């Protein structure tokens, strides 16, 4: 901005103020500042919004199609949620998502910045019908964050649903991560679940890329706030300490996955 200002002053042969003075005026005399986006923005929508007029024409069709898809996906989810809440409905609508990685140890002191980190993962499944959120928590010493681990968590959720509400029709919503849930291993797990558990059907619906904000994000942001608060009163050293913050909210039922549960899933892949 200063460069533009300088160029403009020079073009009219006027004297330009020094950068320091310009910055001082800019920061103290005007009620303006740089905008920080609140949440992750969609690449496609942002590139269309930021495109020049002539570029916009080329992007127009793709953008319109994307907007239509977004609306349709929202409508579909709203309809599913409405119908699952009807009395005697056999439908269960659940949305699952992996939370951003939580590394330990973390603390306010800069010394933590240089420590080797152990990554902790938290996978949440939000059951919209029963308004419960289940957290599956593990660290990288137990498992990665691929199809095997995600599959194990979803299968555990299905096992629980089959016991509590037998003969239901489960509809899952998720984002489009191929390494985690949009792959053949997870499909095989659903097939296995439907043929061995007391579940009528499992339907998968994927949210539109860039617009995957969902009900599970509420749980994630609550957990992130709890971790932030806990960090202020002292460092978080070990995964169990991080887990305590994950399960701090009463509505979250925590489930700490053990290594053996991952082994069962591994054998499922080999079958
Ligand atoms: Zn978009």
TrEMBL record:
Listed transmembrane segments: none
Annotated coiled-coil segments of the chain: 49-76
Occurrences of domain DUF7869 (ranges): 173-231
InterPro entries: DUF7869
Pfam families attached to this UniProt entry: DUF7869
Keywords: Coiled coil
Protein name in UniProt: (apollo) hypothetical protein
């Amino acid at each position: 901005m200063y460069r533009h200002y300088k160029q403009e002053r020079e073009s009219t042969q006027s004297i330009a103020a020094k950068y320091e003075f310009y910055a001082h005026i800019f920061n103290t005399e005007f009620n303006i500042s740089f905008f920080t986006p609140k949440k992750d923005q969609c690449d496609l929508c942002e590139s269309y919004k930021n495109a020049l007029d002539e570029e916009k024409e080329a992007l127009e069709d793709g953008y319109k199609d994307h907007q239509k898809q977004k609306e349709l996906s929202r409508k579909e989810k709203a309809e599913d949620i409405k119908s699952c809440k009807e009395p005697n409905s056999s439908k269960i609508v659940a949305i699952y998502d992996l939370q951003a990685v939580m590394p330990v140890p973390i603390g306010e002191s800069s010394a933590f910045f240089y420590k080797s980190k152990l990554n902790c993962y938290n996978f949440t499944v939000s059951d919209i019908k029963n308004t419960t959120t289940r957290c599956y928590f593990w660290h990288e010493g137990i498992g990665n964050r691929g199809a095997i681990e995600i599959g194990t968590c979803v299968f555990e959720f299905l096992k629980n649903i089959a016991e509590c509400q037998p003969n239901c029709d489960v509809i899952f919503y998720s984002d489009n991560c191929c390494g985690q849930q949009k792959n053949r291993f997870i499909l095989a797990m659903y097939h296995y679940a439907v043929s061995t558990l007391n579940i009528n059907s499992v339907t998968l619906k994927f949210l539109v890329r860039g617009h995957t904000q969902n009900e599970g994000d509420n749980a994630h942001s609550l957990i992130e706030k709890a971790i932030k608060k806990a960090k202020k009163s002292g460092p978080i050293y070990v995964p169990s300490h991080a887990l305590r913050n994950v399960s701090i909210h009463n509505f979250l039922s925590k489930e700490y996955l053990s290594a053996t549960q991952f082994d069962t899933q591994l054998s499922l892949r080999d079958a």
